[in-house]
Amino acid sequence: MARPKPVTFDKLKTVAENRRARFDYAIEDKFEAGLMLQGTEVKALRAGEATISESYAEVKDGQVWLINANIPEYSHGNRENHEAKRPRKLLLNQREINKLMGAVERKGMTLVPMSVYFNRTGRAKVELALGKGRKSQDKREYIKDRDWKRDKARLMRDKG
């Protein structure tokens, strides 16, 4: 069986990364979504201030929303500054939204934001992944496999 080609996105500057997600979830499919932001949110992101470690995405009324992502207030913003943890709309094609909705409802999967970044055209994007939660036994196996791969690479490097 042919292996699927890994999905790569045009990441110019990564602002926030959810490194824990690869450990907590078995990632199956990735999507690139636009992020609907206010002006001060874009400025705060360009300054490199954001955390998505506790955030998730959900489908409501045919739209995808990023919940609990923290983009702190812009330091030079005035009274028009944004709220730090407000829900933000994610911009996806209708076909992608339907696919995500089906996977979440039928298969019990979770929408996990993997990273927030700017692409080459200067647009803020979110790498969104469909993941299935790992149990503690699966996490232990994941750690064991990761350590073995690291040791194997070290042995091959030393012998080669």
TrEMBL record:
InterPro entries: SmpB (IPR023620), SsrA-bd_prot (IPR000037), SsrA-bd_prot_CS (IPR020081). Pfam families: SmpB. GO terms for biological process: trans-translation; trans-translation-dependent protein tagging. The keyword Oxidoreductase does not apply. CDD domains: SmpB. It is found in: Cytoplasm. Its main location: cytoplasm. GO terms for cellular component: cytosol. Signal peptide: none annotated. Required for rescue of stalled ribosomes mediated by trans-translation. Binds to transfer-messenger RNA (tmRNA), required for stable association of tmRNA with ribosomes. tmRNA and SmpB together mimic tRNA shape, replacing the anticodon stem-loop with SmpB. tmRNA is encoded by the ssrA gene; the 2 termini fold to resemble tRNA(Ala) and it encodes a 'tag peptide', a short internal open reading frame. During trans-translation Ala-aminoacylated tmRNA acts like a tRNA, entering the A-site of stalled ribosomes, displacing the stalled mRNA. NCBIfam families: PRK05422.1, smpB. Belongs to the SmpB family. This is SsrA-binding protein. It comes from Pontixanthobacter rizhaonensis. The lineage of its organism: Bacteria, Pseudomonadati, Pseudomonadota, Alphaproteobacteria, Sphingomonadales. The gene is smpB.
